[in-house]
Amino acid sequence: MSRLPIRLRLTLFSTLAMAVVLAGAAWLLYLQVGSDLGSGLDQSLRSRAQDVGALVRDGGSLRSTSSPLIESGESFAELLSPRGRVLDASSSLHGAPLLSADELQRARVHALWLNRPSAPGLDEPARLLAVRSPRGVLVVGGTRENRSETLAGLRRAFFIGGPVALLLAALGGYLLAGAALRPMEAMRRRAQEISTSSLDERLPVTGTGDEVARLGETLNRMLGRIEDGLARERRFVSDASHELRTPLALLKTELELALRQGRSPDELRSAIGSAAEEADRLGRIADDLLLLARSEQGHLQLRLERLDSGELLRTVAQRFSRNGRPEVEADAGVLEGDRLRLEQALGNLVDNAVRHGGRGVSLRAGRSHGSVELHVLDRGKGFPPAFIDHAFERFSRAGDGRGGESAGLGLSIVETIARAHGGRAHAANRDSGGADVWIELPG
């Protein structure tokens, strides 16, 4: 069943459901019609018993009556004495008693309903009503053949009309399923044509606002996210290639210079020192790229512990004491985080501030709205206003050269570490001049 096309499966399921509904409705209708016909016959027999009883009390004869009370071939009546002897009866009964002795005794106590496969003079099933009479027991009866014929005709109508109705329902279900699935087929064909080189294309979406339209809109949004992701990855690869090309070229140049004949020891040491610096720069770029890649794959592991905010800031400040130790002000108390990663993020911020803010760098820790904020402030020129919104993007550097000769990954690393801790990184320009960059962590 699962290998059948969904259109055919929908048709089969809808046809099966329709068959169950039709069968149930037909069965209930059949029972209701049978019950109504039976009730109608019983009511007719009650009325006939009253009329025939009145006829008998007035001295009328059941045998000679030509009134519509007793229709030949359709109904009959019989009057029995208390001992079961036939006192009077329709001519079609030929004087044969309709009740046994036991039935006669029961009929003298209360009205008695009986079904007979046939009655004397009738080759059809019959329904009898026996009631007490002043002269004994009066029995009236009528044929049940009309009820049987009506039910038989109803069954024939069901057996003929049911399959026709099911066939029409199946055809309608097939056409309806095709109309419902047509937009999905159009989306499938378009999706088959989309490749990594044409992710700007989108699936056709109808304006109906139904489930299929919402599915198409969701898939289009997914394609947009994939397109944005691939664009970021391509830009990342391009920028990384560009950033790696410069130190590699410099490293190659320094090594080629060192290999030249006639170089003095001082020149060799200088060339090798420059090559070592470029190698270190390559290593830092590679480490940063690896950290970013791990964070995107969800593999950036953190060793969380309770840290004193003041101790954390003082440790970072100590590393930059050669440039004039940054001021530290901490009143945030204890926070939870990965010491090495937070020191790396704060180190990147301090390094950036020292290079562009001179010696007026300070570190502050505080609490705001239930979060812990670790600030690094400087007194430099600050960020260009248009750059602040892109400060934490990879390889982003301000137009005035803020970021120096770095690869433009420092602030991106800060943002990555902050997000790994469940926080965010922010940047702003101070009113008094300079930049304020901080990490916001859950308190």
Topology summary:
Layout: H1 6-57, E1 75-80, E2 86-89, H2 101-109, E3 112-116, E4 126-133, E5 136-143, H3 145-193, H4 211-259, H5 265-296, E6 304-308, H6 309-319, E7 327-330, E8 334-338, H7 339-357, E9 362-368, E10 371-377, H8 410-420, E11 424-429, E12 435-442
Parallel strand pairs: 7-9
Antiparallel strand pairs: 1-2, 1-5, 3-4, 4-5, 6-8, 9-10, 10-12, 11-12
Short description:
The chain is an alpha+beta fold and 443 residues long. The protein contains 8 helices and 12 strands.
Q: What would your notes on this structure say?
A:
- With 443 residues, this protein is of the alpha+beta class.
- The protein has three domains: 6-148, Beta-Lactamase, CATH 3.30.450; 211-296, Orthogonal Bundle (Helix Hairpins), CATH 1.10.287; 304-442, 2-Layer Sandwich (Heat Shock Protein 90), CATH 3.30.565.
- It is 52% helix and 16% strand.
- The protein contains eight helices and twelve strands.
- The chain has helices spanning 6-57, 101-109, 145-193, 211-259, 265-296, 309-319, 339-357, 410-420, and strands spanning 75-80, 86-89, 112-116, 126-133, 136-143, 304-308, 327-330, 334-338, 362-368, 371-377, 424-429, 435-442.
- Residues 400-407 have low confidence and may be disordered.
